[in-house]
Amino acid sequence: MLQVGNRILNYNAIFLFLVISLFYIVLNYLNNLWLLNDQFYYRLLDGSSTNNEIDKFIHDRSSLAWVQYLLIPVVLLVKIAIVAAAVFGSMILYNKHASFRSVFKVALLAEIIVIFASIWRLTYFVVKGDVSVLDLQYYYPLSLGQIFEPTVVPPYLIYPLQIINLFEFLYFLVLSSGLAFLLNDKLTHGIKIVLSGYGVCLLLWMLIVVFIQLQITNS
């Protein structure tokens, strides 16, 4: 099992990071081209802003698009590092040993699952057509939130219901499996470590988002 794990994790992390970053940049570009385009903002701001104000907003947004694309690799790097740090810290608590670089590579592999979720979401909106702000706010593919009508869900529950989805389960499973391979350990032990590290951090983040939403709702 250790040899299999070593072969799986023996890849060029820089190359995969650049490929994933490129995927996100392309998806972001297509999202702006097909969904968040000029027509979308004209519909969104019609009645609350003049045509000149809308034109200026669209022009300013287009002028700063390159900044958005440049920030994508930075945000991705920070996200992977945080996930890896959470899992690495949990490993220390369980007295398991591996390099942070190896854990980072496991987290980077798991990010491929998020790419598939992003592709699914973009495809859904393109096929659906006539996307509203409500659609963008509420829809996440294969999530628990799709069971309920958006109008009956309190705003503070939107994010938790979106988090509980099939892609998040697969992401967790890839993290756990990769860690089990890395440590030459059982999958159940990998699950415990990831649950204690990444799982706890995800729960804390979800509670922070819920708290902020409650403050906004009650203000």
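the 2nd protein, sequnce then structure:
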Amino acid sequence: MKSKKCPALALLITLAIAFTGCSGKKIDVDTPATEQTTSEQSTNTEEKTASAKKVGLVLTTAGLGDKNFNDMSFQGMQMGEKELGIPFDYAEPKAATDYETVTRQYAESGEYSLIIVLGADQIDSLTKVATDFPEQKFTIIDANVDLPNVSSIFTYQQEQTFLSGVLAGLVTTDTANFPLANPEKHVGIIVGMDTPIQLAAQAGFVAGAKFVDKDIIVDQTVAGSFSDPAKGISLASGMYSTGADVVQHFAGATGLGVFTAAKNENKYAIGAGMSQNPIDPEHIICTSERKVYEIVFSEIKKINEDSWKPGVLNLGLAQNAVGYTFEGTNIAIPENIKSQMEKIKAYIIDNNIQIPSKSEEVDAWIQEHNISKIK
């Protein structure tokens, strides 16, 4: 298993998270484990002696630099290394066909206390490998693999985007405080793929906007990719040109194109995942935040404490796993809007209200749940 120390330093420096130099080893997907050099084998032996526990990470094909899922997962691995002393390796598959290759390499090596993989695209590959290696522990984030050696962790995507939908609704109905908005009540959301998880994020945003005003127009579209910023520009530009004041993305690196379109059209945008507000603080009004780094770190901590368990774990607003952040934006958010959003968050949590996970459920939901309920 060929390893490279301190890979792509110039790339890591540009990431919008607190990467502190190189850590972890990048696994070369193209090189079979049997071709590992003698010096690399020696290094691995020394590391295993220093730490009996080690973790492997299989990123998505979007790779590092997506300022989202992959970067946050990598940050969680770094936290485990820094705070717990547990080293890690990581792989950046070039195509979906690489997922099984690298996951199997990890499992065959016998080096890893835990192998973490990301996203629904890795369900099939993980199912095959986890079945073949029943003693190996695996964690998959954002998907479910029902095997006795797999921990499947979900965040409620509809809860992640609900409050950013609320903000979009408050912005598009308040031209006095948000000068880039027009008199039309019109917003939009772009998700990456046509999957239940992504469509749940779409539904949450729609529910949030219509929670504010049921007559708000919400454009909804699927990009079909997590790694096509040009597609993001095209789709968001189309929404802005037809009157949308705010466009939320939930599309990985494709969403970076939404920010370009927002700047070009001088409109508002909403990020997703880690805080993306500093990318363009004049146009990105907030980020619908998901603390993937904490999820990854928690799994590593469980391995360290021998408390890791297989099964399904669901996390949302009540667990502070998702939410929103204004940090890094230069757009002035009135205090009454901040206060209102916190009251709405408390209303959802305190009353254990289930946010719709399908857009077709929203109309019925808002008949019972809307901003008039907030005192």
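The longest helix spans residues 196-212. Residues 1-22, 32-50 have pLDDT under 50 and may be disordered.
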